[in-house]
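@channel sequence for tomorrow's demo:
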Amino acid sequence: MRNLTYAQKFRTTATLILALILLVGCGGAELPNLVDAPPASQSALTVETLLEAPVNQSDPINPEILPNRVLDIDTISENSRGISDETIAIAIVKSGDVFQDVEIGVEARVFRLNENGGINSRKVEIVQVFDDFGDEENLETIVKEVVEQDIFGIILLSTAVSPETTDVLAENNVPFFGWGFSEGFCEPNKWGFGFNGCMNLSTSTFSDQNLDTSVMRLLSIFYGRIPQVISVTTNDPAGISVTTHNETLWGENLVKAIKLDRSEISASAILQEISSIKADVLLLSVGLDKTVEIKKELISNFSGMVLDDVTYLPGILQNFEMSEELEGGYVLSQVPPQEEYRGAATQIMTGLSQIGGPQIYSQAISIGYWSTDLLIAILDSIESELSVSSFFEKANVEGYLYDPEFSGGPCPLQTALSHQNSSGGAALLQVRGGVFRPVVNFNCP
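structure tokens (generated this afternoon):
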């Protein structure tokens, strides 16, 4: 692979990783001493009264209490689309070039559910897996097809998600579940449910509520104080959104924000920008291929921590050259890391073993598993007849407290507030000796 470009190297490695994770069992690397995770303090939220008051999107909602409001559900037809006496039909929509094996995580969670009697004696059935290959036009075509089918909801893990596609799902009352990084998981859309809430700061008037503070929390645990940071992002809408988030979150502790066109991103360009600046942490948000390309040189020449949020990809380190590029660097994970070997990892690994799946599982498998777990939890909490309307009422009007209660698992999430807030769960890992080693355990605010 020495004569390949970094982009080619990554694509080749992605293929190797899939084969490796299907064949290799859990390694016997020595476990590091872990930082104890602070206990979750969020308690269950209840509705004592529901007052008939209009929803004012410009009125910030106190995230500590469930607002006493009735959302307008009259426009949601009483139907049981995708729900029969025997089954609940779901589909999976993915960008297979990035989230290649998400369906394995979905299948593992669905299998465990169905083996234990399903939901009100109904089994969940995965009727189709769509791949948009990361193309927006493909995704638009798929979404238009899905809303015409007898499907209750979808697991959506696509890099091509746009407000246009999620609006189509919402207009047709199709709930979707996944990783809440796109606008459709946030207000004013109430049909998207991220397993970690709304992660997109740029969407709304609720910016104070959906500000994700996980990076600051973890780094403050690591340093024992709020560190001084430099952020490096791409100079495009996604990168500008990240910069806005960092400026809001870090305030004066953000000593420099660098935005570069993708063609200009290099380790030397970044090092030249920061040569006279003292900081503790260099935050990278420039995409996976660019991160792998520049991280080694940054680690060698920057005295502090070099941290990104994309390279926690279990299996990636089994490629020697890729492992060398990342050695010594840090990475943030918003999914419970397998390397902690806590309750959440045990749950997924048990489910995977039941379907003959890999025991080293990818980030996509984890996201698929926990997104499906959220879908199942909400449906299983409905006491009335299952329908699209009863789902919406439970998820958005009554509100349901999703709390897996596994150590190291997703953080508690109140579904009626999940379109405004992130749940804030994250872990900090370092690549040492060719292995991801937890530095700060996955924990919740």
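heads up for whoever presents: The longest helix spans residues 6-23.
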